[in-house]
Design a protein that fits this description.
Length: 425
């Protein structure tokens, strides 16, 4: 038997036994994840009991029913395998696979895609016509997104292996691409293509909801030659990180911007972002705006000739670019990775240390005895565990307790306009 981490309900995760992953189709691969990222959106069901509230919201028309096609008719109802960002080692390949080999390190995109249908050929891999039954086919979202399970597991099966996994380029530290399955690629599409069309353009990032995406976007904008990068966030720690990347932390937008990244995941933040655009500017919104009626200033956009881009990111085609960008930019230097936390433990402490890795994946503080702990300032959104010999020890044996309890963060009081839970992908 092998193990996979399952979401049970708000505040509760548990390791569950399951049959070993195996090749089911000649085009499959089986991979062993050893660095796992926690998406900004994972924090919503982990830390907030949103399932019944969102079910009621869909029933009364306050939440768009498409949410049910992604998260289930009772959104985020456990148990289901969790996690959709990882770096993994290929451990087996099907007889028809020609581009991967055993031992290769790869990033596995969150969305499951075939690579050959019309949407995939157009770069819309998150809308694959072959794998998508309803709205999205993806790892780590539960049965509504398909039978793929989560990525925080001993091993898992990857279909269409000649297309899906993205090999990690030589020389790229693996922790730097821990979030390339989703969040890093999402940030890349927000700033790098628009900057290619607006050389030296000004960039504004409104952060706080999609925490790591906003920070990645700020760092990428600096690395790709933006003339000005302003970062707005009410969290001092994230402002410090943005400044360490070369961005300017400000309390409010200063003027008008060619490119705006809306990462507050709020309706009010979206309107603020659109009103901050310079003529001909583009705003990319990376949150989940689940309410059925999210107001936007269309007349202002018309007068400004503004563009709003909102939609799922397509990590598979972007993964080839975002990993190299992270390596080139240097914004994610070793042991200060925006979306990673590394814990080094003695061999004798492997059992307890690995259990703490699950705790750190939940955003908890690592409390057990360790040789060295490297902690990021960006909410500890990924974790890996290694021994002094360098052996990867991420996945723990069964904890002595049946589940790991997640600490509940302090909640801000939302305005009535933004009362629907804010999420990000």
């Amino acid at each position: 038997m092998t193990r996979a981490l399952h979401f049970l309900r708000s505040g509760r995760l548990a390791w569950r036994d399951r049959e070993p992953s195996r090749i089911e189709d000649e085009r499959d691969a089986v991979v062993r994840p050893f660095v796992a990222g926690r998406c900004d959106g994972d924090t919503v069901p982990i830390h907030r009991p949103v399932s019944r509230a969102m079910q009621l919201g869909m029933a009364i028309g306050a939440i768009d029913p498409v949410v049910g096609s992604i998260c289930g008719s009772v959104p985020f109802k456990g148990p289901f395998g969790i996690g959709h960002e990882c770096v993994a080692e290929v451990v087996a390949v099907g007889s028809a696979v020609t581009t991967l080999h055993v031992g290769q390190r790869v990033v596995v995109p969150r969305a499951v895609s075939c690579g050959s249908c019309a949407p995939c050929r157009s770069g819309l891999t998150s809308k694959c016509a072959t794998t998508t039954r309803a709205t999205l086919a993806a790892f780590g979202f539960g049965a509504a997104c398909g039978p793929w399970g989560g990525m925080v597991a001993d091993t898992f099966r990857v279909p269409f292996a000649d297309h899906m996994p993205v090999p990690v380029p030589a020389g790229v530290p693996l922790l730097r691409v821990a979030a390339a399955s989703d969040n890093l690629a999402d940030a890349w599409r927000c700033v790098v293509p628009p900057l290619a069309e607006r050389e030296g353009g000004s960039v504004l990032v409104l952060g706080g909801g999609a925490k790591s995406i906003g920070l990645y976007a700020a760092g990428l904008a600096v690395a790709h030659g933006a003339g000005q990068v302003d970062y707005v966030d009410d969290d001092a720690g994230r402002r410090d990180i943005a400044e360490s990347f070369g961005a300017r932390a400000v309390t409010r937008p200063d003027g008008r911007y060619d490119i705006v990244v809306e990462a507050t995941s709020s309706a009010s933040g979206l309107r603020r972002a659109l009103r901050a655009l310079a003529p001909g500017g583009v705003c990319t919104a990376v949150g989940y705006y689940v309410a059925t009626g999210t107001r936007v200033p269309l007349m202002h956009m018309y007068a400004t000739d503004a563009t709003l881009r909102v939609g799922v990111s397509h990590a598979q085609p972007l993964g080839h670019h975002s990993g190299r960008a992270a390596s080139r930019s240097g914004m994610l230097h070793d042991f200060h990775v925006v979306s990673s936390l590394e814990v080094q433990v003695p061999e004798a402490e492997v059992g307890s240390g690995c259990e703490d890795a699950a705790m750190s994946w939940l955003g908890a503080v690592v409390r057990r005895r360790m040789v060295t702990t490297y902690v990021t300032a960006a909410s500890r959104v990924a974790a890996t565990v290694t021994s002094p010999s360098g052996r990867a020890l991420w996945l723990p044996p069964r904890p002595t307790r049946g589940a790991v309890r997640a600490p509940r963060p302090k909640r801000a009081s939302p305005s009535s306009e933004d009362a629907v839970p804010a999420m990000s992908g």
